[in-house]
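Lab notebook, bench 4. Still working through the backlog of constructs that have no structural model yet. Next entry is a single chain of 307 residues. Request: give me the structure tokens for it.
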Amino acid sequence: MPPAIYQSLLSQFLAQLASFFEQVAAPVEAPEKTSFGDVDIIVSEPKVLPFHPEQITTALNAKRTMSSHPLYSFAVPYPDLDGSFVQLDIQLCKAKDFDWEVFHKSHGDLWNLLGSSIRPFGLTANNVGLHLRIPEIERSDRKRALIFLTADPNTVLNFLQLDKESYWQTFNTVDDMFEFACSTRLFRAAAYVKHGLKANDRKRMVQRDLYRRFVDEFVPIRNTGSKDCDNDTELTRQEVFNEALIRFGKRDEFEARIKVWRKEREEVSHKQGTREWRKAEAIEAEAYANAWIDAMKSKARNTGQDV
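Model written out:
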């Protein structure tokens, strides 16, 4: 649908849904969109419990509803076009997750770009919040390696040194969004060299046009003739790790987690050692038995007796 119709419907849907939920918002749109396929809105805290999507179906005059909690889709009549419909997708989330969901889903592919910058420094942003990865655990168990840091959007922007005012507005152009992605203190052009991309990033190169443009076109051109294209080049993963533990008050959690992990590793190593020792003993005993049998057979042959 054209941007003008999209904006009109978005304002209408936000107003209507505010009658049913305490928190209602739409993620900030990606720049330079000339058409929209559907309308996405995030909500939380239904005003009437239990929540029934049929209430919204009636209010929107929707002709069809599909429910797969926490996602609900409604086919709403397209303005002044009989027989055509606009798809409204509503995501119902917990109140504590609302701000992060809106934040993390804003600007389309922006967090795909930022993710490639923060990953080498041991940071991961997912649908829950910003996390710190423990290197020692990450090698064996990625999930257990995650330490939750925060789900507060502005705190994350401050930590990455990204401009808050710019984030909460639609970027005028795709290049403006690309420049914003490069403005984090953790940006390194080397993270976007095609032959060095991780498997997920290589997949994004195929599936996400903006990510491909950023890697193939924007970063190389931006860095041409510039020796200072990277930000805070002296910063290391260990320094970011230590800073995050202090800033987010996670030192005690890290020390407890690593203590448990190392104890488990010791126990596993001990069990493996015991198994190896028993295996070696069994092999030695079998070899001794085979040698004894061979010796007895040899003796029998020499004396003409059966073994």
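Notes after review: The longest strand covers residues 85-93. Residues 251-303 form the longest helix (53 residues). Flag for follow-up if needed.
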